[in-house]
Amino acid sequence: MVYYLKRMDWWLLAALLALVVLGVLFVYSASYRGEGIPVGTDYQKQILWAVLGIGVFLIVALIDYHWLGKCSWLLYAGALVLLVLVLVIGETRSGATRWISLPGFDIQPSELAKLGTLLALARFLSLTATDPRRLYVVALAGVISFVPFLLIFVEPDLGTAAVLVPLTACLLFVAGVPMRILCFLVVLGLLALPLGYQVLDDYQQDRIEVFLNPDSDPLRDGWTRRQSQIAVGSGGLTGKGYLSGTQNVLGFLPRSVAPNDFIYSVIAEETGFVGAALVLALYAAVLLCAFRAALVSRDKLGRFLSVGVATIIFSHVFVNIAMTIGLMPITGLPLPLVSYGGSFMVVTMCGLGIVQSVYVRRARA
Amino acid sequence: MRGSRREKVASDVVRARVLLGLMLLAFGVLAVSLYNVQVSSTSKYETALDRQSMRRIRMPGMRGQILDRNGGVFADNRPSYNVAIFLEELRLVDIKISETLETLRPIVGYPASAGEEEVVDHVHKLKPLPLMAWRDLDEAALARFAEQCSMIPGADIQVEAVREYPQGALASHVIGYVGRSNMVHDVRRPFHYYADEMVGKSGIEKQFDGVLRGRAGGRLMQVDVEGFHREDIAVDPPEPGSDVQLAIDIKIQEYVEEELQDTVGSAVIVDPRNGDILAMASAPSFDPNMIVPYITTESWNSIIENPDHPLLNRAIQGSYTPGSIVKPIVALAGLENGKLDPEYIVHCPGHFMLGSQKFGCWLTYGHGDMDLSGAIQNSCNVYFFTAGLSMGREYIVHMSHAVGLGRRTGIGIGGERAGLVPDAAWKRERYGESWWDGDTCNLSIGQGPITVTPLQMALMTAAIANGGTLYRPRLVQGVRAPGGEMFQELPVTVENRLAWSQSSLDVIRKAMFKTVMSPRGTGRNAAVPGVEIAGKTGTAEFGPKALGKKRGWMIAFAPFDEPRYAVAMVLDHAATGGGADVGPRLRRIFGKIFQVEVSESAPGVGHG
Q1: Are residues B526 and B397 part of one domain?
Q2: pLDDT, tens digit, for every residue of B421-464?
Q3: What is the CATH number of the domain that holds B512?
Q4: What are the chain B neighbours of A130 within 8 Å (beta carbons)?
């Protein structure tokens, strides 16, 4: 145990604890409406999830990731079953069937599917029999991620489904798939985009159009985007102070999205560029830790798992922040560890636990 | 084999490093974008934020007072206690407006003054402002509410200044009244909301609105996304308006209005020394307190449907045929131009033949031989037909214009009529006919198309009284800035100085003196023991001859040697004529002014 603690990546733990604490603080702030008005209980739930998440992180860190690798097919299959199940018995909210209601809380199978897919891909690519230079290997990897992609896509949850794309691409890249194949895939993907657009639901098309032409729809998604931009922009260098974000307190930033998808907007408004950049730096630290684990990993499985977790976190952070400051369309991707929400918190913690597990079991220097 | 394996591992590491580099680069892009949005364009987004969450509301200043020349109050402000409902507080406790109104109703004791429609309208258009559910609570309701309101969330008392006219109907035509201003909610205007603001709608209230109103202030407040008030950010307190002091003397105004109570007509008293309007009355009148702050439909209809038009300010808006009261001016026109000899005698047989046309004198059996003084005292028409024809219409028209007829006096309160002095050009244009001697005859006795306002007649009388100075009427003596001690006096303006010779004036003034003071003068009913009064009566026919409708006129000034009062009074429906109908009223007015006991029962007894 002492050995274990000695080898632990304390930087990773520190960074994720900082992010989780910031998350609780700003979920509270996002629910704050003014003096004397009762604050919602969201922040209390967030504390619960944070504690649960940290527990998951520590437990997973203890587990040998090789054992996870062995179970990966089972976990993958389980995730697929849940994805099918959600389409059958899932609860439909505002047009999307994403949640399975359990007593006390809801689970979002698509979040679990991210991990399941990662495990399966990492396991598959790290098999000694797998030669990444062969086209069929690439095709098989494609199938592994395409099945959950499709199931999530039809929920529909475009944002989460889309995260599987960079995850697969980055793993293939690190696994050593030749550049010509990767380039071919990228070209293929670009060609498929217009076709994909046709498949999108109206609201999804609307969101993209709103992004391309923000003034076209000022009261729907254009509204949120605009309000988020105003919140971030008016934050200035040092922000308006904790609990003093006008956009959030006055409700211009819709209360339904402020604690989750747009939590970064609240942080940026109240703490300014200084705070917003600090949060970005904390994520960079998390990425650095994950890649360090990948580089010092004693085997491919550990490397791929770490890179995969880093990619999932990176994708969420990049898309979420880019959306918050108006660089990308609204996709509904939460900010890892900070946004209000339980499933993704647990999944992220689990992923980071795997990274820790890889780091602890690194080759001796 | 080993070598290639090592290469592959190496390529894994390289690729992982490349990937990390790309990801950190992407974060770098985010950081730069973040900097651009947050630091480089802060002001742009702050402006956008203010635009959507800041509201400016205009708050009127307290209106200044309107005072009489001695400081008596004509128009003032009183506090009105309103029950205000704060929508943002109701929302906090999730109570509907209608529920609150229900709760409050038994406490106040009567239904809210804000109807359902007003409530809906308020929520849509004025959400950040409190809704005035009950306006102007009576004392009992205020006491009940004050006792219990602390239990009711979102309701409170708000005090509002309401215009009040302590003198009631007195001088109401001069003072005027205020009404809610219709400020349009125009996006280009600098304010989003306008607090109830009163604007002068007539009289001094309207004419001096800019002075009385003061400077409006403003309140900058923050609203939330639903438009509810959140907090006040800044307040620019409004400044009260200036006080306006009138030349009118409440006492004299009262004397005059008492004499017009039972009738339809008008009277104006001017100070001949400076043109100050000491009294200006029009009957019937109205009580502006009935109109401000609200007028009920019934009250409004009762005013509108009154055939005598109480809102009409006859003193300046009435067009009256003057009749004989212009005779002194006709005489002055003749005397000053050498066309009339005061000693010249005209025989009055009771009528005058102009060709085959017969013009009658009011005394059908005739006045006999008349000189100018006698003709004025007795108001002999035949004398003036003769005089008018011998001098010609030009001199009469010219002199009439010189004393201000046919033109607005410039008193400054709205709707003033100019009256009319007909001449050849006017007749040609109006009727396509040329002027003939019959028109001159009519003009000479103030009949025909000529019209005047009572104010013009008072000023003309003042000019005769003061020896030929025609003043512009001064209704407002001074203006006092808010908090100031002294009134800034407005200047006296001379409209025209007439170079009347003393001899002509003496003839006319003495004749007017005798008109009142001699026992046989037509104005003897106006005589007050111990006061030397000069005057002239007039009875003007109007409308179809068969109906025999008459206006009764009298002009007068006193004291004779150093005149301080010049008065003109007209009655719309005179039973007999100016001397009989107006004379006694002027006697009572002068009597009160000079504090002389007046005997009601012995009219017309001259002094001595």
Answers
A1: yes
A2: 999 999 999 999 999 999 999 999 999 999 999 999 999 999 99
A3: 3.40.710.10
A4: none
Are the beta carbons of B169 and B285 closer than 8 angstroms?
A: yes
- Tell the residue number behind the tokens 């889309």, with chain if given: A162
Spell out a b/e string for A261-290, using b for 16 or more CB atoms within 10 Å of the CB, else e.
bbbbbbbbbbbbbebbbebbebbbbbbbbb
A314 interaction partners in chain B (CB closer than 8 Å): 23, 26
A252 and chain B in contact, CB less than 8 A = yes
- Residue carrying structure tokens 């102009």: B354
Tokens standing for B178?
Answer: 């205020």
* ipTM score of complex: 0.92
Q: How many domains, chain B? A: 2
Strands B488-489 and B476-480, bridge-based pairing: antiparallel
**pLDDT tens digits, B178-196:** 988 776 555 555 677 877 7
A223 part of contact set with chain B, CB < 8 Å: no
**Do A280 and B31 count as a contact with CB atoms less than 8 A apart?**
yes
Per residue in B244-289, pLDDT (tens digit) is 999 999 999 999 999 999 999 999 999 999 999 999 999 999 999 9
Which helix or strand (DSSP H or E) is residue B296 part of? none
Using CB atoms, pick whichever of B19, B45, B92 lies closest to residue A229.
Answer: B45
CB nearest to B49's CB, from A246, A291, A325: A246
Contact B24 A284 (CB under 8 A): yes
Give the pTM. 0.74
Those of residues 40-99 in B touching chain A at CB distance below 8 A are 41-42, 44-46, 48-49, 52-53, 92
> Are residues B45 and A250, on separate chains, in Cβ contact within 8 Å?
no
Specify whether the CB–CB gap between B242 and B482 falls below 8 A.
yes
CB contact under 8 Å between B48 and A237, yes or no, is no
pLDDT (average), residues B377-399: 94
Do B427 and B331 fall within a single domain? yes
Is B153 in the same domain as B274? no
- B107-124 tens-digit pLDDT: 888 888 888 888 888 888
Q: pLDDT tens across A212-226, in order? A: 555 444 456 677 888
> Which of B193, B227, B246 lies at the terminal end of a domain, its last residue?
B246
Tell me how close the Cα of B40 comes to any Cα of chain A, in angstroms.
8
C-beta of residue B406 within 8 angstroms of C-beta of residue B421: yes
In sequence order, which residues have a C-beta less than 8 Å from that of residue A153 and are 6 or more positions away?
A: A161
pLDDT at site A72: 93
User: Does residue B109 belong to any structural domain of this protein?
Assistant: yes
Nearest chain A CA: its distance from B42 CA (Å): 5
Task: Tell whether omega for the bond before B293 is within 30 degrees of 0, i.e. cis.
Answer: yes
Residue B113: per-residue pLDDT: 82
Same domain, B259 and B378: yes
Same-domain status, B193 and B236: yes
What is d(CA B56, CA B58) in angstroms, rounded to the nearest whole number? Answer: 7
pLDDT at B427: 93
B475, pLDDT greater than 80: yes
CB contact under 8 A, B16 and A284: no
Same domain, yes or no: B316 and B340: yes
Cβ neighbours of A327 in B, within 8 Å:
30, 33
B173 and B260, same domain (yes or no): no
Residues B364 and B509 in one domain: yes
Residue span of the structural domain in which B277 resides? 250-284+311-476+494-593
Rounded Cα distance between B480 and B471, Å, is 23
pLDDT tens track for B36-60: 999 998 888 888 888 888 888 888 8
